[in-house]
Amino acid sequence: MKKLLRRYEPYYDTVGAMLLFGGIALLPFSKEQVQLWIDAHHLPWLDAFFAYLTHLGDGLTFVIVIAGMALWRSYYHATEGLLSFATSGLFTQLLKRTAFADALRPKGILGAKLHYIAGVDVHIAHSFPSGHTTTAFALATFLALHSAPKRGVYWALAAGLIGFSRIYLNQHFLTDVLAGAVIGTFWASLIHWWLLPLREKPKWQKRLLP
């Protein structure tokens, strides 16, 4: 695992920097105060941008990537992607439905104090952790670990923007997003490390298309 972290240091450093920045923001301010501050800075073009960008954190995006890997790369890549998606998603849903089943989202706590974007269905319950952010960081980690190490910075920033979209749209608090980023990154990294012995086996290098 240490070799993995060193090889893809640009990605993990970028994710770490974002987590550190978010954690520092929560030292002097509550999650509600951070939410209200971000909410006070809405702009029409940002509303439109984040309303569309947030959908990249849907599970469908990851499923499309997995299908593409099975068709054009290898069964190994598709299996790793599927397990990264499944384990991170199931872990997040388990937390949402059990330990943090009563955690309310920004709308459930701050209500009318917030700005809501037309056409965006804002939820109230099951706030912690953010499922979209978990998926975004699991996918970013998966893609970063199969890209040139320097490109990892871009995957991390893309996942960070999707995570921020959940806050901007008042779907989640910063705490929810930080937790989702940790979960997605952790599970995708663990699955990648666990499956490394299969990487060179011929049968795992096959793909659906010749």
Mean pLDDT: 96
State the CATH class: Mainly Alpha
Q: Distance N terminus to C terminus?
A: 33 Å
The residue fraction in helices comes out at 55-70%
Percent of residues in beta strands: under 5%
Shape: elongated
Instruction: Name the assembly state.
Output: single chain
Give your account of this protein's structure.
By secondary structure, the chain is mainly α. The protein has a single domain (2-205), classed as Vanadium-containing Chloroperoxidase, domain 1. Helices cover 66% and strands 0% of the residues. It contains 10 helices and no strands. It has helices at residues 2-7, 9-25, 31-39, 44-53, 59-73, 75-97, 106-110, 131-144, 152-168, 174-195. Helix 8 runs antiparallel to helix 9 (152-168), helix 8 (131-144) runs parallel beside helix 10 and helix 9 packs antiparallel against helix 10 (174-195). The chain is elongated. The protein starts with a helix and ends in a 15-residue tail after the last helix.
List the helices and strands and how they pair.
Elements: H1 2-7, H2 9-25, H3 31-39, H4 44-53, H5 59-73, H6 75-97, H7 106-110, H8 131-144, H9 152-168, H10 174-195
In summary, what is this structure?
The protein has 210 residues and is mainly α. The protein is built from 10 helices and no strands. It has one domain: Vanadium-containing Chloroperoxidase, domain 1 (Up-down Bundle).
Essential attributes:
210 residues; mainly alpha; Vanadium-containing Chloroperoxidase, domain 1
